[in-house]
Amino acid sequence: MSRIVAIVGRPNVGKSTLFNRLVGERKAIVDDYSGVTRDRHYGDCEWNGETFTVIDTGGYVKDSKDMFEAAIRDQVKIAVEEASVLVFMTDVQTEVTDLDSQFAEILRKSKKPVLIAVNKVDNHEQITETAAFYQLGFGELFPISSATGSGTGELLDKVVELLPEDDGKDYISEEIANLPKIAIVGRPNVGKSSFINALLGFNRNIVTDVAGTTRDSIHTRYNAFGKDLILIDTAGIRKKSKVEENIEFYSVMRSLRAIENCDICIIMLDAQNGIESQDLNLLFLAQKHGKGIIVLVNKWDLYEKSTNTAKEYEEHIKKRTAPYVDYPVVFISALNKQRIFQAIESVCEVYDRLSTKIKTSKLNELLLPIIQATPPPSIKGKTISIKYIQQLPSKSVCFAYFCNLPQYINDSYKRFLENKLRENFNFNGVPIKIFFRKK
């Protein structure tokens, strides 16, 4: 089940400042003017061993005629629908405004857990002033200062308490819970539905539809030719009413949930448009979560081709995603059912690689001589010595390198080690995580 926390509220109460603090990096632009946050920002927050996704939303202004504020308003409504927990930001310096009260009515209708964070509480005198926000009717208040971080620990404790269990099942039946889950994500109109329909169309009686309790994702069981897996469909996003101008935002919301709950992520592209920024975001998100990755280039039948077109096209895609380039690219036509079963073969191969377990003896036998021939560069006159390598027991593919000074190993040497792993073992389509630990 998805674990999404949305930070909502009227403009200029400090939502982006809190978001930056929770995700630990300055992703959202912060300014004293209202309406700065127009695009949505996403990030991962970890607290007390629990990881969840945080969304920074724009300031909600009811009934505004301003074009941007109207678009932001609709995006906030979508975020409220999609989130598991809502953090309602208010400002102690302006007390309760009419806009706060109007927004509180909307949040009450959502039937979601709502936590009121009263921001800009910088001293003890202001803590007593937060009592005015009880009139919004949500119970417990959390006085915080998003600028200094004061009070955010208590807020996060409550957020983690309210989050649903991370069982990865998204409320699907036990019968299919252990089957490989394949999410098809991408921009609108690239052919996600057509691909699934093409797969299912040849013989519908060997397929069963299992609709999830959650309104978003429909899990379709594909059981043919010895392949038994679940396709998580993120298509059909245009059917949502009144979000035409926010279709990109809704697409990302659907994709976020699908990526969280899958084993393999298929990034589908339109051959005519190539790989775009949203596709890159989805690919890097899947990589960060340790999911298997395959890129499908659809509508290849409509693309004008010459001798090396496919090879050049693949090189262009991988140039955009560098340094991560070790994943399969399959050129398909969902309409003509061209290479769609080759795509499923690639999916199954990547899924098998995800469960690869390499013996510690073999790892050390192959990689230690390479490391000794090309050791990590010395830092501050200190020699770094890697003594031992081990694969960690984990859902994603992770390796631990035990050494004397783990803090001094830089990113370029980390990439070198990953490349050597990929040269010696087949991890095509599988993200690799490398950790350095003190020997």
Key features?
single chain, 439 residues, alpha/beta, seven-stranded mixed sheet, six-stranded mixed sheet, 13 helices, 22% strand
Layout of helices and strands:
Elements: E1 4-8, H1 15-23, E2 41-47, E3 50-56, H2 67-82, E4 85-91, H3 98-110, E5 114-119, H4 124-129, E6 141-143, H5 152-162, H6 174-177, E7 181-186, H7 192-200, E8 208-211, E9 218-224, E10 227-233, H8 247-260, E11 264-270, H9 277-288, E12 292-298, H10 309-321, E13 329-331, H11 340-354, H12 360-373, E14 386-391, E15 397-403, H13 411-424, E16 432-438
Parallel strand pairs: 1-3, 1-4, 4-5, 5-6, 7-10, 7-11, 11-12, 12-13, 15-16
Antiparallel strand pairs: 2-3, 8-9, 9-10, 14-15
Helix pairs in contact: 8-9, 12-13
Question: What do these coordinates show?
Answer:
Helices cover 34% and strands 22% of the residues. The longest helix is centred in the N-terminal third of the chain and has 16 residues. It has 439 residues and is an alpha/beta fold. Helix 8 runs parallel beside helix 9 and helix 12 packs across helix 13. The chain starts with a strand and ends with a strand. It is built from 13 helices and 16 strands. The radius of gyration is 24 Å and the shape is globular. About 10% of the residues have low confidence. The strands form 3 sheets. The chain has a 7-stranded mixed β-sheet, sandwiched between helices. It has a 6-stranded mixed β-sheet with strand order 2-3-1-4-5-6, sandwiched between helices. Helix 9 links the parallel strand 11 and strand 12.
